[in-house]
Write a structure and sequence with these properties.
By secondary structure, the protein is an alpha/beta fold. It has two domains: 116 residues, 2-Layer Sandwich (Copper Amine Oxidase, Chain A, domain 1), CATH 3.30.457; 173 residues, 3-Layer(aba) Sandwich (Aminopeptidase). Strands 11-10-12-15-13-14 form a six-stranded mixed beta sheet, with helices on both faces. Strands 3-4-5-6-7 form a five-stranded antiparallel beta sheet, covered by helices on one side. The protein starts with 7 loop residues before the first helix and ends with a helix. Bound molecules: zinc ion. The site of zinc ion (ZN) has 5 residues, from loops.
Length: 323
């Protein structure tokens, strides 16, 4: 682990790269100006502010940089993601915190308000990582009922179809494949038979995805996606079923909405939409939009292995509860 302060130059350079990537890929993402309006330059540190390094030290954390536009503060038991962007919005591990005032750049070192200390403390714990997936509430292993234990997992897009391009320049097809693989192994450990529509970066027609579920006589079809919007303030997960969905599909949808709500991402609720994969599958079918890749904070979260595991665990729990 390398401890150093993220320089403003590096951050702006990075943002510029992201903007360029979005422009080149033709994404309809928001237009951005380089730099961060909430970050103002000063030649001397304001007396009431702390450098991010000092902030970390006061919390027993050191700053680890991974070339991303967020701060990663770490020690043996904790990992805190600190995301600061325009209008003074600050996020700690994906949660918006009350305004903590401006961020000041003093010769490349970031200074933040001391208030942020009290905002981060609730996220810290000793002996256990803040990113450990929530333990399963039931210690008894789940046994699928006869005929209810075959789930088709459908990682959206793939191959020539990248899906949405994230604020950080990553493809939806890659992120949803990672989440889907995690979901598959959790379900398999719980005794569920899993069939995946794709296991690698392959293009598969929507009709074929539904056909895989129909041929397998699956008990449930779950399509995994990540959302995108022109306005990057949009955030949260959404669960979809077809407009003419069966009661079982709706029951699974409500169950997923419930378990996903518990991991701290905003819910956009259970919605109806006639996506082809939902209409053409004969078994109960749901589609999960796991968050907004166009939102800087969620783009960073969705890239994180620990966070992906939490999403996958929540989806697995929702499926198991419903089945
Ligand atoms: Zn998608």
């Amino acid at each position: 682990m390398v401890n150093k302060t993220i320089s403003l130059k590096r951050l702006i350079g990075w943002v510029g790269w992201a903007v360029l990537t979005i422009a080149l890929t033709g994404c309809q993402g928001p237009t951005q100006t380089s730099g961060n309006p909430a970050i103002r330059k000063s030649s001397t540190p304001p007396s009431y502010m702390l450098s991010v390094n000092d902030l970390g030290s006061r919390l027993g954390l050191s700053v680890a940089t991974a070339g991303n536009p967020y701060y990663e503060l770490k020690n043996a038991s904790n990992r805190v993601l600190l995301f600061m962007y325009e209008n003074g919005k600050v996020y700690v591990n994906g949660d918006s915190v009350a305004s903590v005032g401006p961020v000041v750049d003093v010769n490349g070192t970031y200074y933040v308000s001391e208030i942020l200390l009290s905002q981060i403390r609730p996220y810290l714990q000793s002996g256990q990582s803040t990113w450990t997936p929530t333990p399963q509430p039931s210690p008894t292993p789940w046994t699928p009922r006869t005929g209810a234990g075959r789930v088709v997992i459908d990682p959206g897009h793939g191959g020539k179809d990248p899906g949405a391009i994230s604020y950080l320049g990553h493809y939806e097809k890659d992120i949803v494949l990672q989440i889907s693989r995690r979901l598959a192994s959790i379900l398999q450990r719980r005794g569920v038979e899993v069939i995946m529509t794709r296991r690698d970066d392959t293009f598969i027609e929507l009709e074929e995805r539904a056909a895989i579920a129909n041929r397998a006589e699956a008990d449930l079809f779950v399509s995994i996606h990540a959302d995108s919007h022109n306005d990057r303030v949009h955030q949260g997960f959404t669960v979809y079923v077809a407009r003419s969905a069966s009661d079982t599909s709706r029951q699974v949808g409500r169950s997923l909405e419930n378990t996903l709500s518990r991991i701290g991402i905003p819910s956009k609720g259970l919605r109806s939409a006639d996506y082809r994969v939902l209409v053409q599958t004969r078994c109960p079918a749901v589609l999960v939009e796991t968050g907004f890749l166009s939102n800087p904070n969620e783009a960073a979260m969705l890239l994180d292995g620990g966070y992906q595991e939490r999403i996958a665990s929540a989806i697995a729990e929702g499926i198991i509860n419903a089945l």
